[in-house]
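User: I'm preparing a small set of examples for a lab meeting where we compare how different chains pack in three dimensions. I only have the primary sequence for this one, and I'd like the structure in token form so I can line it up with the others. Please keep the answer compact; I'll paste it straight into my notes.
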Amino acid sequence: MQAHAVPSLLLTIFLLVELPKAWSRRVSRRDLLSRESPLDMSPASFDDQYAGCAAAMEAVLPDLNRTEFSASPVYAEAWKSAAARWQERRDWELKGPPSSRQLPPPGFRDEHAVALLAYTANSPLHREFNAAVREAGRSRAYYLRYFPFKTLHFLLTEALRLLRSGQKPRCYQVFRGVHGVRFRPLGPGATVRLGAFASASLMDAAAHQFGEDTFFGIWTCHGVAIKGYSFFPGEEEVLIPPYETFLVVNASVPARGPVRIYLKAQDKASTFNCEYIKEKQCTSGRCKQNNSGKTSQSFRSF
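Assistant: Understood. Below is the structure token output for the 302-residue chain.
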């Protein structure tokens, strides 16, 4: 499905007014400490969208997640903290008037909210997770053997799908600041992906707080506003999935100083789909893939 067309007037306003204003700030950054990285289609990224196998994935997650918790104390601690924060928010909502309660879309459950909170918390989890996502797509075998965040990847992907399905289709003009990496796109006209789950903000000032070695202006049509499920709702966060593709509209890559890149949503592209289910169920003829299953009670307890 093609992304919604961006009105030329909005693009003109964005390029000529918003981006120069955001990028005119002084940057005191030690450029030699920043590493360079290509901005391309991220061919090694694990980009599974779990199309047609959500229910089958949910059925195998309880045991899988317990294994992943024991393998990663960072993941286990982040999940525990996020679950406590989610319970606090729910308790607070129950004490308030019904009009103040956040109504999730159909199919969106506690574990989706906790996954978003764990990802957005101020912990090492999101860095470790995204580093693994960028490499897990080397091959199906590599994902199955070495990727330690299969549960979190699925839950974040499903959370974005469910939240997007509960909203009117729309695109967002967002900003993303990156610290420590100077991205180098192939040039205007190139098609690229961000290669992992990418946090951006509706506010350029919030994005600058996260880094200025590379500063993105992004028009995203598959990114989802997650303010109500972020550890820091004031950041007006939009989470962009690894499978969204973008056109490089403009890029400035000076020898020193911040890299500036503007991306426009194109479409989405995935190499992988339902890889864990194919391995665990389909090869034995037991797979039954659909998107309509309920999460088991045992899953909710982890």
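A couple of notes for your slides: The mean pLDDT is 85. The two ends are 35 Å apart (CA to CA).

User: Perfect, thanks.
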